Structures are given as structure tokens and as C-alpha cells.
């Protein structure tokens, strides 16, 4: 009996897979924290024989190199990829046969030049699924601009042809198992489903519902900014990442925190945004721990700078560390655990107000408060608060002096990015108000606030 187990990484919007016939197993696109895979292997009492990569990843550090070495498994990477470690090169048409499993390699360039997909079958020739990496996603395709702007047009055309090939060569009932698309910026557009088949994609995927010219124009027009740390992932993965380290960071007390803040180091508070707004150490940045944590901290972080975390518990700090090693932030300067008051070392705390779009509407009825939109360009272009200053969160560090002093209301799509922005702007002379609210609902409830285009 062939089984496919999904290993979710919601913080990065990715999935890895473990395929087994009950005796042996194959891992596809494993994340850096390989203990999740080894735990499944032990639980299922199966032996790992192969680790397969669909491509050299641009959004996370792969665990494939370490996992294959520790398990004594073959490590399959596309033959065309330039890597600096031993691997089993695979090319279009190759078949990996082990136990009852048969995995056929299909060349599907687009997301990267040498991207491949793996068609899962059994010894009898029955197809059980296809692992599509960053090619065919659920109602979308992988973005094509991560290799570099000079290659984007070529790869976009290649992506169209690759998805068409998958649809042409596989039965309609074939389950599709993509790596990206569940919130990942590797997806050109948001995915529309949580599970799908090739036949369903024929009806919904833009590469299969549009002609090539329309598809290329639509995809290119939709490409927007992606996390800055992406440029570091490819070189790390090509070199063969160092072994993962999930050990606890050194504990830090309030006096040490103050010295690090005063020295301009990164001190990141993981608490909920409303708790941070109610009271926090001056000079700290609030990146609430949750599914968006690693994407936005990784995007904003000054790579290689000392990084200290403040968490409500050691378990929260450990979970944050796990997220960070997935994008190659391996070294923490330390961590402090406790509430803001206990870590203030006798110093004063800062705070700012929290409101919603109804509160902003009421404020606009009596005065003209300054408003900051921290969303991406595409979001702002669609609809925004009338008169809002627009600075995408990932540009704020370099443009914070454009934000005036005095009263400033800060919003995004949900409050998450706005909270990070507010924490970055918080200083004497600014009266910040965090809008912790859903923008889409507000656009419907308060149309007078909004401007389209």
C-alpha cells in the first residue's frame, strides 16, 4: 500500500512529503528541520532510501543534504543544477525504482531553469500522484522571477509549457502534490484550494485556461516584491547547507537587553501585537510569533547582525528558533523570557493605542489624522484609505524619516504588518495608533474612507 504523508510548514507556505510502501520511504523537498521527517520514519518503521529535490529552493534552506547523509540515502537533484556536493543526478525520463515505488522524472522548467517533477507510480504501472514543486500549483503556478530579471520572460514561457506537459501526460484523476503555494511568495498568485488533481487544474489553472500570450502577460503583471532573504537561499542550498542546530539560545537578562538595544542590535519581541502595544521595551521590534513570523522577520532582518529574542516562554523561543533556521538564521545572540515589566530592568516602558477602522472613521470625522499604509504596492493600488501615505513594510526601515511626527494611524491587511511597522516607528514625538482590523471588511463597511486605484 503506497501512502503519501504531507509535512506542512505554514510559516513558509510550503509542504514536504514522505512517500512509503510500508517498508521503504522517499522524502521530497524536506525542510531544514529534518527531525520531523526522522520522527515519521521511526513512527512508521520504514527505511529512507531516497531524498528528492524538485529544484534548488529560493525560499528556504533545504534539509535534503543532511537528511540523505544521515539516513545513508541517495540524494537526487536535477542533473543540470550546479551544486557543490555529491548527489544522484536525475534527468527527464529517468525512473527511480525502489520497493513498490516508481518515481519518473519529468523536466518542468519555469520556476527555475532545471526544475523537475516526479510522477509517483507502482510496480503495476498505476499512477498515484505527481510532485510538482513550484510548477503546477493549486490554481496557480510558481513565480518565474527568482532566478533573476534577465531570465523571467524565458522562464514564464517555460512555465506555461511545463504545466501544459503535466496536464497532457498525466491522467485527470492524478493527485497533485506541490511544494509551494500555501502562503509562499514562491507562488505567482494565491492558491485556490488545499488539494487537487490534474483534471481539476485543467479547469482552474491559468496556465491551462489562458493561451500562452495571455498567461505570460498576466503572470508578469502580477509579480510583486518577494522577501529579501530569498537571494541567500539558492547559494546556501547549492553549497550543501550546514547541519541544523536547534539548541536553546543563551538566556539574557534585562540589563543585557538594555545594553543590546542601546547598541542598536536587533531585539525582537515575539508577543501578541496588542500586548506589545500595551507595554514594551523602547527600541524593540515586535514581530508576533505565528505563521507570518519568519517571512517578515527574515525580510526585514539585517543579515548577520546580532539577534536577540524576547518570548513569553522558552517553548515559544524554541519554536521561533526552529522557524529561523529554516531560512538560514542559525545564530541567536540570546533570548529573554518574561513580560515586559520584568525585563525592563527598572526602565520605563513605552506604549501606543490600538484601534480599528471604525475608530479611524470616527477620527476622520473630526480631524484629518495622518495614516500610513504598510501593505504591498499591489494591495495599495487596488484600494486604500484616502490620503494614506504608502510605504510597504519591507521599505520602511530605509524610509522611516518620511513618516511625520505627531499622530499617525498605521494599517495593513490584518494588523500584523502594521504592528511591525508601528514598533519600528515608535519613538518620542510620535503618537501612534495601531489599526488591528481586517482591511477587506473595513473597505465594505466604511466605503467613505476608501479610494480605489
Broad structural category: alpha/beta
Examine the secondary-structure arrangement and name the CATH architecture of the largest domain: 4-Layer Sandwich
* CATH T-level topology of the largest domain: Metallo-beta-lactamase, Chain A
Shape: globular
**Text of the CATH class of the largest domain:** Alpha Beta
Helix content: 25-40%
Number of domains: 3
Straight-line N-to-C gap: 54 Å
Give a brief outline of the structure.
Helices cover 32% and strands 23% of the residues.
Characterization of the model:
Helix 3 crosses helix 6 (212-222). The chain has 453 residues and is of the alpha/beta class. The protein has helices spanning 35-44, 64-71, 152-169, 198-204, 206-209, 212-222, 230-239, 254-262, 273-278, 293-300, 314-325, 340-343, 357-366, 377-382, 393-399, 416-425, 439-445; strands spanning 3-9, 14-20, 24-28, 47-52, 74-78, 88-90, 95-98, 101-107, 116-122, 127-133, 175-178, 196-197, 266-269, 285-286, 307-311, 334-337, 353-355, 370-373, 383-385, 389-390, 406-411, 430-435, 450-452. It is built from 17 helices and 23 strands. It is 32% helix and 23% strand. The strands form five sheets. The protein has a six-stranded mixed sheet, with helices on one face. The protein folds into three domains: 3-239, Metallo-beta-lactamase, Chain A; 254-343, 3-Layer(aba) Sandwich (Oxidized Rhodanese, domain 1); 353-452, Rhodanese-like domain (Oxidized Rhodanese, domain 1, 3-Layer(aba) Sandwich). Strand 15, helix 11 (314-325) and strand 16 form a beta-alpha-beta unit. The mean pLDDT is 96.
Amino acid at each position: 500500500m503506497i501512502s503519501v504523508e504531507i509535512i506542512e510548514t505554514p510559516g513558509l507556505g510550503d509542504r514536504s512529503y514522505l512517500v512509503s510502501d510500508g517498508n521503504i520511504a522517499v522524502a521530497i523537498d524536506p525542510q531544514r528541520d529534518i527531525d520531523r521527517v526522522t520522527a515519521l520514519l521511526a513512527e512508521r518503521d520504514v527505511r529512507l532510501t531516497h531524498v528528492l529535490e524538485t529544484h534548488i529552493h529560493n525560499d528556504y534552506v533545504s534539509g535534503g543534504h543532511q537528511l540523505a547523509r544521515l539516513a545513508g540515502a541517495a540524494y537526487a537533484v536535477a542533473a543540470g543544477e550546479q551544486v557543490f556536493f555529491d548527489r544522484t543526478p536525475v534527468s527527464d525520463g529517468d525512473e527511480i525504482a525502489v520497493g513498490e515505488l516508481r518515481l519518473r522524472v519529468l523536466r518542468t522548467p519555469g520556476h527555475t531553469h532545471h526544475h523537475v517533477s516526479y510522477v509517483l507510480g507502482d510496480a503495476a504501472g498505476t499512477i498515484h500522484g505527481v510532485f510538482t514543486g513550484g510548477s503546477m500549483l493549486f490554481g496557480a503556478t510558481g513565480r518565474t522571477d527568482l532566478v533573476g530579471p534577465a531570465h523571467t520572460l524565458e522562464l514564464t514561457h517555460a512555465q506555461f509549457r511545463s504545466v501544459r506537459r503535466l496536464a497532457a501526460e498525466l491522467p485527470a484523476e492524478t493527485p497533485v502534490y506541490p511544494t509551494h503555494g500555501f502562503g509562499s511568495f514562491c507562488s505567482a498568485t494565491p492558491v485556490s484550494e488545499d488539494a487537487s488533481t490534474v483534471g481539476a487544474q485543467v479547469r482552474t489553472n491559468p496556465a491551462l485556461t489562458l493561451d500562452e500570450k495571455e498567461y505570460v502577460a498576466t503572470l508578469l503583471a502580477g509579480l510583486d516584491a518577494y522577501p529579501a532573504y530569498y537571494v541567500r537561499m539558492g547559494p546556501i542550498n547549492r553549497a550543501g547547507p550546514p547541519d541544523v542546530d536547534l539548541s536553546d539560545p543563551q538566556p539574557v537578562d534585562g540589563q543585557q537587553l538594555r545594553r543590546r538595544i542601546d547598541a542598536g542590535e536587533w531585539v525582537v519581541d515575539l508577543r501578541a501585537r496588542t500586548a506589545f502595544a500595551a507595554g514594551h521595551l523602547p527600541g524593540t521590534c515586535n514581530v508576533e510569533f505565528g505563521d507570518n513570523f519568519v517571512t517578515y522577520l527574515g525580510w526585514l532582518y539585517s543579515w548577520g547582525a546580532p539577534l536577540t529574542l524576547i518570548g513569553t516562554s522558552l517553548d515559544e523561543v524554541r519554536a521561533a528558533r526552529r522557524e529561523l533556521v529554516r531560512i538560514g538564521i542559525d545564530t541567536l545572540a540570546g533570548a529573554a523570557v518574561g513580560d515586559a515589566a520584568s525585563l525592563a530592568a527598572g526602565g520605563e516602558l513605552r506604549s501606543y493605542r490600538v484601534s480599528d477602522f471604525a475608530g479611524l472613521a470616527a477620527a476622520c470625522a473630526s480631524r484629518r489624522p495622518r495614516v500610513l499604509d504598510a501593505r504591498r504596492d499591489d494591495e495599495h493600488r487596488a484600494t486604500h484609505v484616502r490620503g494614506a501615505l504608502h510605504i510597504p513594510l519591507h521599505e520602511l526601515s530605509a524610509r522611516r524619516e518620511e513618516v511625520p511626527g505627531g499622530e499617525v494611524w498605521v494599517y495593513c491587511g490584518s494588523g500584523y504588518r502594521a504592528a511591525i511597522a508601528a514598533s519600528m516607528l515608535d519613538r518620542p514625538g510620535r503618537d501612534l495608533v495601531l489599526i488591528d482590523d481586517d482591511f477587506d471588511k473595513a473597505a465594505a463597511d466604511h466605503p467613505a474612507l476608501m479610494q480605489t486605484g
